[in-house]
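I have a small job for you when you get a moment. Can you supply me with one protein entry, sequence and fold together? It will help me judge whether the discrete encoding reads sensibly. Write everything out right here, beneath this request:
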Amino acid sequence: MFVSHLPRKSAPLADGDSQRAAAVEGRASPKGQQTKAAIVDAALRLATQVGLEGLSIGAVAELMHMSKSGVFAHFGSREDLQISVVNEYFHQFEQEVFYPALSAPRGLPRVQALFANWMKRVAVEIQSGCIFISGAVEFDDRPGPVRDALSSSVTTWLAAMHRAVIQAQEQGQLNPDADAQQMAFEIHGLILALHYEARFLNNPGSVARANTGFAHILSRYGAPPHPAGTAAP
């Protein structure tokens, strides 16, 4: 225990000292790590319903059937809790979308796998909500660590899609003269439109239209036909 080295007759810790001691102990022990992970998981579920701005130490404590001081022992502030939720959401996004796509061959198959995995996740988020999208609305004009965490996560993901497009161009599967950043931008735009159409407007057929839009993008950015008698690179 954190305080086991203190003399038995030492003065009791003040409230602030108790919280700091609990924080150190919680972060150091496996049980504390499990508790923290459970809190983040609960906070993430709550954030999909009320947004990052709706998160509070008190609301999460009630959801976890814990005291506020118990939650505070793992997160020094509401902002720390929000950032942890963003990081966990991005971690899940990577596990479901990015890493499975790496098993596809480099080039166009990987671009297609990234989009397909993204669509699978969107199918769930249509019901639960997307932290990246709701967070962008809440923090677009509010500089600070939470906005930075959101921006960094989305930028990292878009860079991965951009890199996959460039690799497809290098493989000769997409037009090498095309603007790879523009293509990645258009794919991202499809996902944003799908969220708006399906979740907010509840328009039927939105998923099919997104898939059709992706097919159109691949057609427009496809590698030009090779002259007769020549081989593709």
